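Final report, section 2: Outcomes. Of the targets proposed, ubiquitinyl hydrolase 1 is the one most frequently requested by collaborating groups, and we therefore present its record in full.
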Amino acid sequence: MEIKAKEVKLGNELSEKEAYQLFFMVFGNGVSKDILAQWSNQGIRFSPDPETSMILVQHEGGPCGVLAAIQAFVLKHLLFCPDDLVKAAQSTPQNTTPRRLSKNQYVASNNFAAFTENAKARALVKSMGEILFLCGNNKRAVIATLSSIGDGVEESEDSLTDVIIAQALEGLSIESASDLHKVLRVETYTTPASAYKRLEAIIPVFQSRMGALLFLISALLSRGLDCVQADRDDPSLPLVTAPFGHASQEIVNLLLCGQAVPNVFDGRMDLGGGMFLKGVSTNVEVGFLTLLESLNFCKVGQNLKCPKWPIWVVGSESHYTVLFALDTAVQDENELEARESQIRKAFDAQDQSGGGGFISVEGFHQVLRETNIRLPSEKLDSLCGSGFIVWSEFWQVILDLDKSLGGLKDSTGQMGQKIFDLYHFNGIAKSDLNGSQFSSGGETPMQRPRLTKLRVSVPPRWTPEEFMADVAVLPSGSAGAQPSGKDTEVAKPEPSQHAPLVDCIRTRWPRAVCNWVGDPPSIV
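The predicted structure is given below as tokens.
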């Protein structure tokens, strides 16, 4: 009992002041009933369709940022860390265990339908607990649940759980801070084991229609409301954005890196006069890519672009989805790619334009020193003539500068092509009209999320002309990074296909060419 008392404070109600601060932080003033309904009607549930059974299904617009972040961590645990799940439940099939090819390379199974309900449930619990402790600086996790449920779910038989939750949710709506104060109950845990145990016991509550909102509240309280506001550049704006109720970048960053910072670049940007813009300051387990970078509205830093595991939340103007690979080697860099990353990182460190892609002459000389680039005097004078250096112009010079001078021009032409597979999940359920997916009545199509497999080829274009050329996929036999097994069957050039997701992929792998079968992947 003494140990339990140290691990958890049970049954604390949110104070009236905290409830009002929380409500207006999330929704602001004048929030519409439609937005509140979106966030009060989205559970955290897996798809019932066997082919997409590891995807969390989204039925309402708005909470997709929360679901996508949880989905990314679920994939991490299912694909790359199943040993943790196996230790807890020996029922996980062996054919879902990733193959370890080297010290740093893992290749996960593509048999998505083989994961048991028990394995998925445990992956969900592990993911939620990991995110909450990440928000709590690895010191605590605050779990928000409904006061009307209490310990009834934990103590009831499975057959009674749905009845208890249905009774608790009957007529329940959150339309004001006062409503939030009445219905919330919060519990603080200081050890992962105790938090996982509690999450496992009350997972039906998070699967209910209030699940996404309760998890967001749990993450905010784990971080601490004052800390959340301190993370932000403009704490007066609501975290759920008008007019459509989408999760802000601050919410997504909170769930991915533990801080509610509003920007996606690395570190922070000094605006002068003691003012800073805050970005992501740490390496992350799962990353983030955005269509907005391809449109030059922002610049995603290396912390989010190159996570520990090859899994990314993908942002568009109105939705969040998930992109992932089964082979961790997709993030490996060859010599020239590593050199490109080094130069770009040094340039970005001097870029105070908010990702605009230009730096001062003084900053440029610092970049040349750090990267050991020796430009001919005429090239140096040309680049510095306007008083600032634009990345695109500098990059063209680097592409045409020999390796011996610190550039990327490879006269040997030995760069190998990279070919690999990516998978894309869109959790919004859509009707599937394929014949086998009808209900028993034969008339109603099944609602299922969308899963797309993409073959990605990154050709070795290291001159300006090659960079701009639209080169088709080369035979897989010329690849620098070969997939294994029957996936190597691509043996003839194919025309590249395009969708907005491809633009996102190219922010991570410039010059990538993508192909898929069937409908194009959707990020909306």
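DSSP finds 22 helices and 18 strands in the chain.
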